Amino acid sequence: MNTKNLPANTFVAVDVEWATRDQMICQIGLAVVRNGKIDEHAQWLIQPPGNEYDETLYRSHHVRPEMTETSPTLEELWSEIQPYLLIGELWAHNAVAAEIPAFQKSLAEYGIPCEWLCIRDSRELFQRHDCPYNSGNGLTQCCMAMSIPFEESEHHDALYDAEKLAELLIALQQGRVADWTGVPVSTEQLRKSQQGKRVLRLGEFAGYYAQKHEGDDVFAVLTSTYAGAPEQEVDVFDTGDKMPKAKDGVVDIARLKMGEGSALNGRKVVLTGEFAIKRSEIERAIVAMGGKKISGVTKNTDAIIIGPINVSGGKLTDLEEQESKGHRIARIVGDADLEELLYGDGHKFFAEL
């Protein structure tokens, strides 16, 4: 490697996440490196124009519309952010496709000039000869090649990715060389290498086209809603698991909070409406978490899960009647609330009961 391509003694690793397909920024994270060490870091949540999000995009990162509904806009934060970008050389991983157009488009939205903004792309420093078209060198794969720990669950958090990029560039400054032996080439191989069973987010996969068996594993070719990605083959089911029907998502039982610590343990739950995943999967999750699915709203009902469409008017009428009598019933409304109930802080829905 030509050492002239390496970062200067002082540089800034930056990462952005965007809310919409026209790359309106919703999060910026950066790490300032001085003398071979991360000396400073910063991050901002940014309200995109109109606080609008493309759902298939925000499922890929850690930012949700409710997190930025009261955040300042990029225009309001720019005087705070810009000085960091002037500290030293700017670096980003896949800057050509991500950070550069995201900054250009987002700043243009507010008429802020950015001709001075120059971001170097660190992917150019990590070429591998076993991959065509400069592929197989995403941030996760580069960290693997440089023996830098990387938590896939933290990927696409802007600050985390910026700090990992800073660690990568520091390692290059120290003379370490990437070893691509055993590093997955494709995204599918990478995902399979990260865990034995693919972690599915609620509604992330719209359905499947086919399945095949290899030993004790079942693989499915899935149609993903993740950032408009094409179909991909991932390890998602253990042998014996029932495959979902087309256009239905899947609940990953392994990620549920079960036992006495579960938010649904011992609670009676009513379902109404349709969700991004099929109802039988939700019912399976309720039982796995220690809850009981009941058919109607009564004084004994603890919670009602309300889907975005085809909601039963009768159940809502019964809900209002019970609440008018002083019975407190938790409401979980829509796919986002359902995901929080299953995989996040489900107890918050019962906090005021």
Summary tags:
353 residues, alpha/beta, Nucleotidyltransferase, domain 5, Rossmann fold, five-stranded mixed sheet, four-stranded parallel sheet, 12 strands, 26% helix, elongated
CATH topology of the largest domain: Nucleotidyltransferase, domain 5
Can you tell me the overall shape? Answer: elongated
Count of individual helical segments: 10
Strand tally: 12
Helix percentage range: 25-40%
CATH class of the largest domain: Alpha Beta
Domain count: 3
Outline the structure in words:
The structure is a single chain. The protein is of the alpha/beta class and 353 residues long. It folds into 3 domains: 3-173, Nucleotidyltransferase, domain 5, CATH 3.30.420; 195-238, no CATH class; 255-350, Rossmann fold (3-Layer(aba) Sandwich), CATH 3.40.50. The protein has 10 helices and 12 strands. The strands form 3 sheets. Strands 3-2-1-4-5 form a 5-stranded mixed sheet, sandwiched between helices. A hairpin with a 6-residue loop joins strand 1 (10-18) and strand 2 (25-34). Residues 195-248 have low confidence and may be disordered.
Question: What is the structure about, briefly put?
Answer:
This protein is of the alpha/beta class and 353 residues long. The protein is built from 10 helices and 12 strands. A hairpin with a 6-residue loop joins strand 1 and strand 2.
